[in-house]
Amino acid sequence: MIRQEIRRGAALAATSVLAGGLVLLAPLSGIAPRAQNAPAPAATPAPAAPTPAAVPEASLPFTAVPFYADWASSPHARRGAEAFNHWNAAGVIPVECAKCHSTPGFQDFLGADGSPGGAVDRPAPIGTVITCVACHNNKTVELTTVVFPSGQVAINQGADAICMTCHQGVESVNSVNKAVAALADDTVEPKLEFINVHYRAAGAMLLGTQAKAGYEYPGKTYAGRFQHQAPYTRCTACHETHTVAVKFKDCAGCHRQVSDKASLRKIRVSAIDYDGTANADEGLAEQVDHQRAALLKAIGDYAKTVSGKPIVYDLEEFPYFFVDLNGNGIADKDEAKFPNRYKSWTPRLLKAAYNYQFVTKDPGAFAHNPLYALQLLDDSIADLGTKIPAGLGAAKRP
Ligand code: HEC
Ligand code: HEC
Ligand code: HEC
Ligand code: HEC
Ligand code: HEC
Predict the structure, then answer these.
(1) What are the extents of the domains in the chain?
(2) Which pTM was predicted?
(3) Is there a contact between 169 and 197 (Cβ–Cβ < 8 Å)?
């Protein structure tokens, strides 16, 4: 109950953040003591609200808004980010994008704006970030269920459901299967385009086959939710809730390899040789990287020999896979351009490239669900290996 009170308080405070601070000064100062469990503000009459014009900037009580500074330093408040400015030229954020890229769009999706929940009903205005009232409103208080693009539903996710509603990607095994249905595995199909699962789909990675965001090969079994030692199973156990930074000091308590953010990638508990290098000092993230590299090489070899057109990957440039015009194996500036996007997809190549992108665009995959990530990479390598000399070698599929 206290949690709900606090969340409502946060929502009010956030209205002020949204409104620029000044106008709602009085409700703001009323909320701060409640958040610290002080007597309800009604018991002590609130001082008369100063007229906005009379309040100097410096006295704005943002320090009294719980977690304001944390949130303000987070990527969710990064006004200049591409994720919040991509639609500026169009003037509105389309229905398909608004849920995760704006506060009004997320509220629309939840139904917190009075519209039906479960879908975005209208394009959202540009110019917002993800503010307090995106995550704190009358709908998120109750939100514990998440529907993934595959149609899979995850119940009882607690407050993580908020995070997972956005960090879930936009594609799944189903959309890939639909695109390649009835096509021959190794025939170049000019109508196929790359399918981009999207970015930082941490929630879908964490749940593995319960969310089915990866391309799962028929006949293989896949890991479900990553079973880490409690309580580090939740988004906000490993990430600080409002800065969303990884709490690496907590990790260091059990993982001797960790001393700073960069060394998270050195975490290793399992003795299993996932990448076949027989190097016991490698971090789990490094093992995932090696399997990613092996898959990218297999994708390159397959494209050259089976599709008949060399391919290159560019981490930053949409849609990521391009024709390697000069065959140097590098995405040169003049190659990494939309008109030169790769168009010689066979179903087999598309599935492997889809999985490569899913794991690559979740830099935390090694901590969110290393087993699922490695399974997807390994199965993609093995599948390409039915046509070209590629395989797992000494690497062990988890
Ligand atoms: C299910 C939620 C979701 C939907 C729907 C969604 N996105 Fe995103 N998008 C994200 C997340 C999460 C990120 C954050 C990536 C990061 O942190 O770099 C992102 C990042 C981006 C970025 C920034 C990429 C970069 O490299 O900085 C662009 C551009 C983008 N999305 C475009 C779109 C477009 C266009 C649509 C609609 C067609 C869309 N997104 C729909 C969740 C979503
Ligand atoms: C990206 C989503 C997100 C945003 C944005 C966000 N919060 Fe939160 N906040 C959460 C989650 C998740 C929790 C934890 C809820 C839980 O575990 O029950 C939380 C908890 C809280 C709590 C309760 C803390 C406690 O100890 O129980 C307060 C107060 C709060 N947020 C205020 C704010 C304010 C003020 C802002 C804006 C400045 C804000 N939040 C922005 C997601 C968010
Ligand atoms: C309304 C959609 C939405 C919700 C809810 C949301 N996020 Fe995000 N998140 C985004 C977008 C969009 C970005 C990219 C912002 C940017 O590029 O600055 C992002 C960025 C991030 C990043 C940084 C990624 C990077 O590229 O550096 C982390 C970490 C993160 N979110 C974690 C969380 C956690 C944890 C929660 C739940 C407490 C959460 N997010 C809730 C949409 C959301
Ligand atoms: C076991 C701990 C753990 C859990 C649980 C966890 N994360 Fe992460 N997350 C990490 C680590 C470690 C990284 C990698 C950070 C790095 O390399 O800087 C990461 C990275 C990320 C990133 C990319 C950040 C970036 O800098 O690009 C996002 C977004 C993210 N996590 C969101 C989430 C969400 C949403 C959840 C819940 C569905 C979640 N995480 C659960 C540990 C965790
Ligand atoms: C209370 C102790 C404890 C804390 C704190 C802890 N872990 Fe772990 N972690 C474990 C144990 C035990 C394992 C191995 C067994 C398992 O997977 O549950 C493990 C396994 C892992 C693995 C898989 C390693 C491998 O080689 O298979 C990763 C990645 C990981 N933890 C990341 C994190 C991150 C990131 C944090 C901090 C946010 C963290 N852990 C905090 C105890 C902890």
Answers:
(1) 1-73, 173-309+344-384
(2) 0.91
(3) yes
